[in-house]
Amino acid sequence: MKWVKSYWWKLLGVSLVLFSIYAGTSTKVGPGIVRITPDHVESTSGFTLTVEGYNTSFDQLTEKDIRVWVKSMNRLVDGTVTEIIDANHLRLDFPAFGIATNDTLLRSASLIVEDQKHGLFLGSEMLRLRITPDARFTSDSLEHSNNPPEKLEQSYFSFPYRFVLYETIRNLNFHVPMWFTMMTLLLISFIFSIRYLNSNNAAFDIWANAFAKAGLLFGLMGIFTGMFWANYTWGTPWTKDPKLNGAAVAVLMYIAYQILRGSIDDEDKVARISAVYNIFAYPIFIVLIMVLPRIADFSLHPGAGDSVGFSNYDLNNHLRKVFYPAVLGWILTGSWIGQLTGRLDLITKEREWND
């Protein structure tokens, strides 16, 4: 087909990959809160907090530029910034939270920070609020803040901050596109295997093998980028996780496909057996990496087992502007690699046939 021979989609793929590499590595990670000291406070008395920020520039602001709140049990309490210690540290004062109970309770609370430069960001449930009975506070005194956050946006483009991930959140633009590309290339290989069985055209078998090899390459890169991420966030490059184990088995299936092709001398026989293997392997591949991990009882991997999918908490509009082009770019580039591999294999095979 003409579009296969044209260069616009290849140029687009390479351009998007280069863009995703540049933007994925150079874009700043947004502001966040690393820790709050102390992390346990009393609700019935005022308290002072020292906050450590991440990728913040508090020293470029004044105390009046920064607004802070503590939120717990759907209630906001306004605080004041008493000192900007440096670019990443603040000292805050808060009045008594003012919650009356009959029993002593320990509730989690979030610190909310907002200013014109960093926008709105928070330390989610990083504070423990000890609520004790106190006659000074009645239900009539429990009021919301009269000055709630305005939900300001950051004044610069950045990736979302995540306490566990930090700078490795950039790996989303590399690790996940590798698997999308592998799925796409193996689907193309699957289609060529079906076409071979329908037509007995040896060229279709060569194309099926070429795209399977390219897909396997991206699967291995997906494994390695995932191991890097796991080692940073989980402390080990591999765990007994259904998502990881399913991906490993899926990659081994296509390594076995290559071993199968090299173990039979008869070309017609290896083409037929490989095509049948490939047709059964692809649905199993999808089940291993997408279905089984989702029905597992537990998984550390986002979007598998009982864990929350990545898009639920980190895939904001800024990250999407790099992530989606990265997915499309790697798929187009991977398709080009598969096409080049197939053309090289065809040339090699034609020389063998001519000899």
Task: Describe what this molecule looks like in 3D.
The chain is an alpha+beta fold. The protein has two domains: 2-26 and 168-354, no CATH class; 32-141, Sandwich (Immunoglobulin-like). Helices cover 48% and strands 18% of the residues. The chain is built from seven helices and eight strands. It has helices spanning 2-5, 8-26, 172-199, 202-233, 242-262, 267-295, 317-354; strands spanning 32-37, 40-42, 47-54, 67-72, 75-86, 89-94, 105-115, 119-131. Strands 1-3-6-5-4-7-8-2 form an eight-stranded mixed sheet, with no helix packed on it. Helix 2 crosses helix 7 (317-354), helix 4 packs antiparallel against helix 5 and helix 4 (202-233) packs parallel to helix 6 (267-295). The two termini are 29 Å apart.
